[in-house]
Amino acid sequence: MKKGLITSILALTFGSLQAQPLPPSPKLVVTLTIDQLRTDYMEAFSSLYGEKGFKRLLREGKVFRQADYSFNVADRASAIAALYTGTTPSMNGIIAERWFDPKTLRPKNCVDDSAFMGNYTDQNTAPTQLLTSTFADELKIATKNAALVYAIAPFRDAAVLSAGHSGNGAFWLNHQTGKWCSTTYYGEYPWWLSQYNDGQSPDFRIKEMEWNPLHPITSYTFLPEWRTIPFKYRFETEKDNKYRRLITSPLINDEMNRVTEDLLDKSNIGKDDITDLLAITYYAGNYNHRSTQECAMEMQDTYARLDQSIARLLDMLESKVGLQNVLLCIASTGYADPDGADIGIYRIPGGEFHLNRCATLLNMYLMATYGEGQYVEGFYNQQIYLNHKLIEEKQLNLAEIQQKSAEFLVQFSGVNKVYSAYQLLLGSWAPQMEHIRNGFHRHRSGDLIIEVLPGWTVMQENSNDNRVVRAATIATPLILLGKGIKPEIIRMPVAIDRVAPTLSSAMRIRAPNACTAAPLN
């Protein structure tokens, strides 16, 4: 009797467990990457927000306050590549938006490829320098190419790296013409976007576009502000730079929404039971890449307008797809435009670091040590590239030259540490080196990586893009919103490489091929 009762209970228990269906895969996964989004600004400016943007995300989403990139010197391109591949530049190859090319002795863009022409642009573009798969690629593989994958961004690198190797299309704004452009790598340019370019692209409306404060200027009290009058920007007056200025303003996010709505209306994305992917990029950085001290009011207004853009996007997804059918992932690129140097009255230690002078003196030192020759082939982004061909011809030991060069460079004012390629590839492991190693790729990074002291300004040759070094971490959020996701705010840091396996798990596909991280719970 007891045996039969126990058997019946077990059968009912395990039978009911097996009968529970898995939650359905979302019809549409939307990844919203917001360039330079900061947690502190997102929270501090909350009195400027409505109820349907950031506040809704905080009420209904799973919010991680601090998402960490596990490699040094992240920028927009390396961050987006890490988000979509679930791994670091040491594996995916995207060490930065640009790096030094020893073949041409000039910097090259991470999505340059001369084999593919552009649509509505003269740039030759493809994702061929991305060395691993993305979750967008894995979605295409899992569905035998049936899933639709589109990416829309203000920037070329963001669009292409988000669409991956197998996407249906990557679209970005031409910074010279104001038209939406793409690359022949992804095949035929879509008819609906051609129609959009013929009558709705920003070049038709740039004359009327004007950026003024959204709220009374007395509302902008969160950052130090020296002005007492509101700002006013008319992009048409910027002549050749009008579209470049537009994409560094919050008005560009409304342009993202306009194209997104056209895509949702005129394509089949999100309209069947096969999961599709839509990758969108917003901008939340400084206007015209100026420091926050110069544009404090603009930065606060940027977040107020960003709040409205997010609200409009959520309403659009609700009306056209249904939020119950959407998994939304919002992430930041994990860095911010640098501020200017602190003025002298505060007496904070600092100085100017000139990479070109370091490279010149290093070459003189190596000539004195090893004989005549151009030992330094080039320099870029705090990295120095040695002339491997010359070193091989002279039958010198590359590792020895790298070590001697590092010992020479570390003596310069403003230099904290110098890492050699040999040390990063084959040297002993140390915890403080992990970030450097993760950001280093043996075929694309320099022979010498220079770490400059905090407070020092890295001076760029032939450029005004001088950067003040700050070692302090900028907290950047990660937000997940969708059916079955429990709303909560998590204060423990989370590694950004867990985004790719998490979204892959939700879509019931493999994680990208170089991803080793576990999905978020």
From TrEMBL:
<dbReference type="Pfam" id="PF01663">
    <property type="entry name" value="Phosphodiest"/>
</dbReference>
<dbReference type="InterPro" id="IPR026263">
    <property type="entry name" value="Alkaline_phosphatase_prok"/>
</dbReference>
<dbReference type="GO" id="GO:0004035">
    <property type="term" value="F:alkaline phosphatase activity"/>
</dbReference>
<dbReference type="InterPro" id="IPR017850">
    <property type="entry name" value="Alkaline_phosphatase_core_sf"/>
</dbReference>
<dbReference type="InterPro" id="IPR002591">
    <property type="entry name" value="Phosphodiest/P_Trfase"/>
</dbReference>
<protein>
    <submittedName>
        <fullName>Putative alkaline phosphatase, PafA-like</fullName>
        <ecNumber>3.1.3.1</ecNumber>
    </submittedName>
</protein>
<keyword id="KW-0378">Hydrolase</keyword>
<feature type="signal peptide">
    <location>
        <begin position="1"/>
        <end position="19"/>
    </location>
</feature>
<keyword id="KW-0732">Signal</keyword>
